[in-house]
User: Fold this.
Amino acid sequence: MKKVFSDEDLIKNLNLYYLNRHLKKKPIEKYHRKIDESQLHDREKYKKKAEILLLNSFMHHFPEVKFENLTCESPDFIANFNDKKIGIELTEVINHLEMKKVESNLNKVFRQAEILLEQEDTTKYRGVYFLEFHSNIKFDIPEEQQENVLSIYKSIKRNKPVGCVKSLRKSFHRRNVFITHEYNMNLFDELCSEKILELIEKKNEKFPYYDTSVDECWLVIVSDMNSIASRYTFIQDREHLNEVKSPFHKIFHLENLCGNITSIK
Assistant:
């Protein structure tokens, strides 16, 4: 019986993180092995591995943090820091909710094109492909999805844009074919501080149900900059974050591309 997420699929879906030269590979690999050895369902293992990768930038800021429980819930992780037992609750702030479904459909199209290219010749086409698309393309219309898959497939084969593809560039990767959306920053793409405050309020309500054996519980809010639904360029009305009230001992906002961290509490 095929796993829900094979090792190959996991590598493909998380490859953007591995391209980051700032990735703390040794602890990440060790933590991933521990998750693999756990009794979690494959889907939960995948989720935990992705969460640990989102925390990579956090580990740069707190290199002394050592995770001791990677598979717990409420909070997501338990770690040791300065002789204290710290619970770490991780949550992602979505900046463009309407893009979340679009991105999900886009990833399905990418995966189909990857399979076509690998079936033809993995060695010839292996690499990471960053694609930009024409603005009028709809990826949520089933009737157009197969046409878009073929356009992506042909663009990579011919090394030039075809159909829905506006531009493409390739980066080296030694194993597989990996297709992703081109990273384009909008200078005026703000993340409203209210979204962060609303997220904190929701987590505050769950706080009484968290593990009470920890000395402190930290909330880490992540903007996944590899996701078009989560990326941003600046936080609007950042000063409002100073007004936060929460039972969490510490609250951070983290973006995982450059690793910038904001201490909210």
